[in-house]
Design a protein that fits this description.
The complex is a heterodimer of chains A (293) and B (236). Chain A has 293 residues and is an alpha+beta fold. Chain A is 71% helix and 8% strand. Chain A contains nine helices and four strands; from the N terminus they run ααβαβαβαβαααα. Chain B is built from seven helices and ten strands. In chain B, helix 3 runs parallel beside helix 5. Classes of the chains: A alpha+beta (293), B alpha/beta (236).
């Protein structure tokens, strides 16, 4: 390790950063805002995916059985359904049990004491292993002998899946836009610092510095701006998560925020990575314009 | 050391700076390029360190075909060819030492070499005592000597000077020319483009005279004006 070389290189980077301090701060600030928005978006998207996933997990298939099936036939059917691929769990609910559950559910809303006979059939409650299996399971159960009707909230499932797909696409678009914006901001800043140092660059070229060598300090500078911006953004997000989110959750109780918030660390690392990468590429391109011999 | 064969250079704006020029400069020579402004002296030098690529013809420097050189190979050439300008081109934020060291550092030299070469060059140009000063604290002659030290720090075989004394008074001019002569006697090929008649006439070196991008005179031990010296030689 040649410490003299390291010292020279760091000195050049530092001189660059301090000479254009105001410009750098502007760039870092703007990058921070862009990346904070990006981070907030990633966070919201992750939360939405989790909420959606939880909702989908709760979807179950109800199969109502034909009247007059005896307990043995019910048990046989239950066993058959349990063997179907994609089925996680099956419960046989006799009509008496079904009525009890219904009474509990509607307590205080509907006077169920008016019911003199039990209108409910025996039923199977089927839990699919995965949302995608729900439709297939329902279809197979529907054609089994002894099954009268199958319900599984088909439309709700379809809508929810469609909604999540759209949200993902919009999210991707927003992310691309924000990354592009950060890219241009950093690239503009670097271009200004390159312009301020064009004399040095021309002398470097004159004495035989390679283009890669000339680029290095600028790329380091771009990476620093990107990482600092991203770090600032992460700080903003942490504060927002700690301070803002509980208040938000209290304000809109009908939105089912997940009990455990997604971990911010992977998002933070992603953002830092994006910041560094964007900074490096933006610098590379900005300096390139001045290096053509 | 330097050889140009039917070299022409036409700038994008249509100006023909060099016109079918042939020139040969041997190892260890000291050559003046003279002529009015705009006769192609600077353009000729620029071809030699590949700031410009000829429109046609061959340019060979130290056995390397510069006209066919890839952009990636240019840095290597530049380390072999020192260049000095009228306006010095020093970095104002760096000291004399740092300006000279810069040329080594940006070529990735080892610190050990920097510590050895920089004092050697500062000693050669007589600036050892002023190594910590900034360019604005120096006289024009001292600034030019710093630039020469920087041009020499990579141990180039060729030193190209474009009007090196254009901004200097007569005493500083003499000082710089003596320095260039000393560098030449150590084996470096020196090419100086100049307007300065007094310098050329006093030094009595080979004089190549340009006019409209062509060589109109080439004399050993020549004078600034054509035909005053003896031993006219044909170039090529």
């Amino acid at each position: 390790m040649d410490w003299g070389k390291v010292k020279f290189f760091l000195g050049e980077v530092l001189a660059n950063l301090t000479r254009n301090a105001a410009m750098q701060i502007t760039a870092i600030g703007t990058v921070a805002v862009a990346i904070a928005m990006l981070g907030a978006f990633l966070f919201v998207q992750k939360t939405a995916a989790e909420v959606g996933g939880q909702a989908l997990q709760q979807i179950e298939v109800s199969a109502f059985l034909k009247d007059g099936l005896d307990a043995k036939a019910g048990a046989a059917l239950t066993a058959r359904v349990a063997k179907l691929p994609g089925v996680a769990h099956v419960a046989f609910v006799p009509k008496a049990e079904g009525l009890k559950q219904l009474r509990n559910k509607l307590r205080g809303e509907v006077d169920t004491s008016l019911l003199t006979t039990n209108p409910l059939p025996d039923a199977l409650r089927i839990q699919a292993k995965h949302v995608d299996d729900v439709a297939a399971v329902a279809g197979k159960v529907r054609v089994m002998p002894g099954v009268a009707e199958v319900h599984y909230g088909a439309e709700t499932v379809q809508k929810l899946l469609r909604l999540m797909a759209i949200a993902q696409r919009i999210g991707l678009g927003v992310i691309v836009l924000l990354v592009v914006a950060s890219f241009f901001i950093i690239s503009n800043t670097i271009r200004l610092t390159v312009y301020a140092r064009r004399r040095e660059i021309s002398i470097m070229q004159l004495v035989g510095a390679t283009n890669n060598y000339i680029r290095m300090p600028f790329i380091a500078e771009g990476v620093i701006a990107g990482v600092f911006g991203a770090a600032l953004a992460v700080a903003i997000l942490v504060v927002a998560q700690r301070q803002l989110l509980p208040k938000l959750a209290a304000a809109i109780p009908f939105v089912p925020l997940p009990a455990a918030l997604p971990d911010l660390l992977p998002v933070a690392l992603q953002l830092l990575g994006i910041g560094a990468l964007v900074g490096a590429i933006a610098s590379w391109i900005s300096v390139g314009r001045y290096l053509r011999v | 050391m330097i050889e140009l064969r039917s070299v022409s250079l036409t700038y994008p704006n249509g100006v023909r700076a060099i016109d079918a020029l042939d020139l040969k400069i041997g190892k260890g020579e000291f050559v003046f390029l003279v002529g009015h402004s705009g006769t192609g002296k600077s353009s000729l030098l620029r071809l030699l360190y590949r700031e410009q690529v000829p429109s046609s013809g061959d340019v060979c420097v130290d056995g390397v075909a510069v006209h066919r050189m890839r952009a990636g190979a240019v840095p290597r050439l530049r380390r072999n060819v020192g260049v000095v300008f009228q306006d010095f081109k020093l970095l104002g934020g760096k000291t004399v030492w740092e300006n000279v060291a810069f040329a080594l550092q940006v070529t990735g030299a080892k610190t050990r070499d920097v510590m050895r070469q920089v004092p050697r060059c500062l000693d050669l140009v007589g600036l050892s005592q002023k190594s910590r000063m900034f360019p604005h604290e120096l006289s024009g002659g001292e600034q030019q000597r710093t630039a020469i030290a920087r041009a020499l720090v990579n141990n180039p075989k060729i030193l190209l000077c474009d009007e090196p004394t254009g901004n200097l008074d007569p005493s500083n001019t003499t000082e710089i020319m003596e320095l260039l002569q000393r560098i030449n006697t150590k084996g470096t090929t020196v090419v100086v483009a100049t307007h300065n008649q007094a310098v050329v006439d006093r030094m009595r070196k080979r004089v190549v005279r340009l006019e409209n991008g062509r060589i109109v005179g080439d004399e050993e031990r020549g004078f600034y004006f054509l035909g005053l010296g003896q031993g006219q030689v044909l170039s090529g």
